[in-house]
Amino acid sequence: MKQIFVMCALLLGVCAANAQETDTVKYAAGNDLYRGITRKLPYRQMVTPYGVEVTFAKTVHIIFPSAVRYVDLGSNHIIAGKADGAENVIRVKATTEGFPGETNFSVICEDGSFYSFNAKYAREPEMLNIEMKDFLENEDTSDFSHTRMNIYFRELGNESPLLVKLIMQSIYKNNDRKVRHLGSKRFGIQFLIKGIYTYNGMLYVHTQTKNSSNVPFDTDFIKFKIVDKKVPKRTAIQETVLDAVRSYNEVIEIAGKSTVRTVYALPKFTIPDDKLLLVELYEKNGGRHQTIRVENADIVNAEVINELKIKEGMKKHIFIMTLFALCLNLKQAHAQRYLPGMKALQVTAGMADGVHWNSDTDFACHFGAAYSVYTKNANRWVIGGEYLHKKYDCKDRRIPVEQFAAEGGYYLKFLSDRRKTFFLSLGLSALAGYETSNRGDKLLPDGATLLDKDCFIYGGALTLELETYLTDRVVLLINARERMLFGSDIGKFHTQVGMGLKFIIN
């Protein structure tokens, strides 16, 4: 018997191994595109393209939030390029009238963002001028990243362009003066270096230009260059020019009696003791040039960006935006949901004081309608009305009792998923209305008199409500509510459960 069991076990093991091998071989052989040790990219990794219509007789302009660095076209059916004199605008046009199918083009911007577009021909495009900033603020995405902020540029090294921008914004907004000995003042123009900062190999120089005169100062250029401290006679001047890789709030014209601050980002550098850094500000068509001499000690003692006393709100902003730049799916929330000022109409229905489907039992139901206005943080004000119908046993018959109540309340959203598909809210409402028994008829058919009187009722309700979006404008509601009403002849407390639909109307 033992031998039989051993043989059966061996036979099963061999069959399982063969089956596993067969499945593996079948998988590898059945996938014509991916053979060997290759894994297909998941669908989530796709940068979902925007749809753009182009035509032969008109030009489509696309405006981006930052300067365009790269444009690539999918075919020769279209042409595209930067608009003359504008760094953040590209123009797209069809080269072939009525070309079939679709083609595509891609754009990389200076802030590290990547955009993908599918282009098709249309005799009259729906949009001729497109502002991408509006698309990013109001985009309706599902589960994919439309814009990736993880493009890196050679001049920034391993630093994220978005993080560089946010650091410059933080320095600008804090407006701290860390350096008090670097400046120049001539001809009514004061040029200062307020701070020198470093982070991850990058140097950030915070400058301030104050025009005390009545004549505007037109900036020609600002130059950073390393020169010798002392230049012997009859010796060629040796200098190394450093180009600022990024700037924040760089203003060309400084009006009279005004002050402008700018933050420049420079690649990592150090200078020996026998050299210095010259920061030169030149006036266009003028002679009010300014020069600041920066010693090596000022460079090596630059303030570490981690030690900045950044405001707590800015810290959170940088943290959130950095995660946005590094994560793939952080921007998946539906921007059109739960916006401040959004309005909605809803209808609900359900059971009260238990679920009773048979009219021979204590049947009770309720119906409601309400109008909602959303506030900040996905909270909302609600006004509406509700009808409750319940039957009570009285001898050999059932007496209907009805409540008509108006509601006004505030619902606090305390839980939602990342995709903004499900929302859980807790609402507190004030109720006031009227209660009637047997439709006001107090005399029963057997001659008895109903003692319950029609009366005014008032009180409140606590509601737990779950919302789930079926579409961007239709929402399914599931709620549970506890009502407490004073003045009623049928009890103060009533428990309700129900379902409903909400319709977004703007």
Describe this structure in words.
- By secondary structure, the protein is mainly beta.
- The protein contains five helices and 27 strands.
- It has three domains: 43-138, Sandwich (Immunoglobulin-like), CATH 2.60.40; 161-313, Sandwich (Immunoglobulin-like), CATH 2.60.40; 343-504, Porin.
- Helices cover 14% and strands 45% of the residues.
- Strand 17 (275-283) and strand 18 (290-294) form a beta hairpin.
- Helix 3 (161-174) packs antiparallel against helix 5 (312-326).
Give the N-to-C terminal Cα separation: 78 Å
The pLDDT mean sits at 79
| CATH class descriptor name of the largest domain | Mainly Beta
Which segments are poorly predicted (pLDDT under 50) over 5 or more consecutive residues? 14-31, 137-147, 307-314, 324-335
Share of β-strand residues: over 45%
Indicate the CATH architecture of the largest domain: Beta Barrel
Q: In percent, how helical is the residue content?
A: 10-25%
Characterize the overall form.
Answer: elongated
Largest sheet: 8 strands, antiparallel, barrel
Describe the structure concisely.
The chain has 506 residues and is mostly beta strands. It has helices at 2-30, 132-138, 161-174, 296-300, 312-326, and strands spanning 50-54, 60-63, 68-73, 78-82, 89-94, 102-109, 114-121, 129-131, 183-186, 189-199, 202-211, 217-228, 239-242, 246-248, 253-254, 258-266, 275-283, 290-294, 303-304, 343-352, 364-374, 380-394, 397-416, 422-437, 455-469, 474-486, 493-504. It is elongated and about 125 Å long.
